[in-house]
C-alpha cells in the first residue's frame, strides 16, 4: 500500500458536495420514517449510486488496487470499495471519501463487510421520531466532508484517527510509515511484516493480512518476482560504465513510482538495501 490522495477537482459531478448531502438526506429521511413506523432508524435500501466514482478512483490509484497494489484492469473490472462498510456505516454509503477502488479478490474474497478498530466508534446520526426534515438537512451537511472546506475535511480525518482502525486507508493513513517488508528467498516470497519503529504496527499488519489478504500466497510470489528484477537491475547498473548508469538509474526509479506494482515494497528496500536478498 502507498499513500494516496483524492483529486477533488476530478470528482464526478454526481459526487459534488451538494449531491452527497442530498443523497445522505434521502437515507436519513427514510431512516426517520422507518423509526416512526415502529422499525429501526436505518434506511431500507442502499442503491449503487457509487458506480460513477470508479473511473476517477482508478485514476487516483494509478490503475492499481488501493490495498494490494496489483494492476487489475487487464483481467478484471475492479470494485468501488466502501472502506467503512455500508452495511454498518450506512450514513457513509454515498460519501466519496469513503470509497477506494480495489481488486475483486481484496474486496469480495477478503474484506467484504469486515472492519476492525480499537478507538472510539463512529456512531450513526441521532435520528428521533420527531427529527424534522430541516434538522436532517442540517445534520447531512455536517456529516458529509466538504472538499472545499478545510475545517470539514479536518473533522473527517479526526473522526478517522479517533476510531483507530486496524485496517489502513491509504487516503487517510500513510501505510509506508506503518508497515515493512521481508524477503524470504527459500520460499521465493516477500511478506508484509510489522514496522519495528511503531508499537501499533503488529496489530495493523495482522488485520491487513486477515481482512485484506495482503499476505496471500499469490501476492507473496508476485512481489518476489518484482524484487528479483529490482535486484538484477541494481546489479546491472553497478556493472555498467558511468555513461550508461543514468538510464539504468531511471529504470530502477520507475519501479518505485506511484504507478508501479508493489511500489511500497520497492521503496522499502531502496531505503533498507542491507535487507535485500542475494540471488
What does the secondary structure layout of this molecule look like, with pairings?
Blueprint: H1 17-36, H2 54-60, E1 79-82, E2 99-102, H3 104-111, H4 133-143, H5 150-163, E3 179-184, E4 189-194, H6 201-212, H7 217-239, H8 245-254, H9 263-271
Antiparallel strand pairs: 1-2, 3-4
What structural class do helix, strand and pairing data support? mainly alpha
Helix content estimate: 40-55%
Distance between the termini: 26 Å
- The total beta strand count reads 4
Mean model confidence by pLDDT:
94
Summed up, the domain count is 2
Low-confidence stretches: none
Strand order of the largest sheet: 1-2
The 3D shape can be described as elongated
Overview features:
single chain, mainly alpha, 7% strand, two-stranded antiparallel ribbon, 279 residues
Would you mind describing this structure in some detail?
Helix 1 packs across helix 4 (133-143) and helix 7 packs antiparallel against helix 8 (245-254). The chain folds into two domains: 8-163, no CATH class; 175-274, no CATH class. The longest helix is centred in the C-terminal third of the chain and has 23 residues, at 217-239. The protein has nine helices and four strands, in the order ααββαααββαααα. The model has no long low-confidence stretch (mean pLDDT 94). The radius of gyration is 21 Å and the shape is elongated. A hairpin with a 4-residue loop joins strand 3 and strand 4 (189-194). The chain has 279 residues and is mainly alpha-helical. Helices cover 41% and strands 7% of the residues. The strands form two sheets. Strands 1-2 form a two-stranded antiparallel ribbon.
Amino acid at each position: 500500500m502507498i499513500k494516496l490522495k483524492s483529486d477533488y477537482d476530478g470528482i464526478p459531478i454526481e459526487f459534488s458536495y451538494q449531491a452527497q448531502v442530498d443523497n445522505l438526506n434521502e437515507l436519513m429521511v427514510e431512516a426517520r420514517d422507518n423509526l416512526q413506523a415502529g422499525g429501526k432508524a436505518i434506511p431500507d435500501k442502499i442503491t449503487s449510486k457509487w458506480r460513477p466514482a470508479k473511473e476517477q478512483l482508478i485514476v487516483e490509484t494509478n490503475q492499481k488496487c488501493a490495498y494490494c497494489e496489483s494492476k487489475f484492469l487487464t483481467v478484471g473490472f475492479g470494485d468501488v470499495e466502501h472502506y467503512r462498510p455500508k452495511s454498518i456505516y450506512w450514513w457513509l454509503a454515498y460519501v466519496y471519501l469513503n470509497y477506494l477502488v480495489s481488486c475483486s479478490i481484496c474486496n469480495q474474497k477478503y474484506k467484504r463487510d469486515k472492519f476492525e478498530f480499537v478507538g472510539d466508534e463512529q456512531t450513526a446520526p441521532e435520528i428521533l421520531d420527531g427529527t424534522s426534515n430541516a434538522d436532517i438537512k442540517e445534520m447531512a451537511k455536517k456529516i458529509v466532508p466538504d472538499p472545499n472546506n478545510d475545517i470539514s475535511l479536518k473533522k473527517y480525518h479526526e473522526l478517522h484517527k479517533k476510531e483507530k482502525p486496524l485496517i489502513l486507508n491509504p487516503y487517510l493513513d500513510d501505510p509506508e510509515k506503518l508497515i515493512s517488508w521481508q524477503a524470504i528467498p527459500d520460499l521465493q516470497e516477500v511478506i508484509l511484516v510489522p514496522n519495528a519503529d511503531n508499537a501499533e504496527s503488529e496489530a495493523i499488519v495482522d488485520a491487513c493480512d486477515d481482512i485484506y489478504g495482503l499476505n496471500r500466497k499469490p501476492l507473496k510470489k508476485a512481489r518476489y518476482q518484482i524484487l528479483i528484477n529490482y535486484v538484477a537491475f541494481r546489479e546491472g547498473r553497478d556493472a555498467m560504465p558511468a555513461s550508461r548508469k543514468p538510464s539504468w538509474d531511471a529504470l530502477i526509479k520507475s519501479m518505485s513510482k506511484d504507478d508501479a506494482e508493489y511500489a511500497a515494497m520497492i521503496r522499502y528496500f531502496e531505503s533498507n538495501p542491507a535487507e535485500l536478498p542475494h540471488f
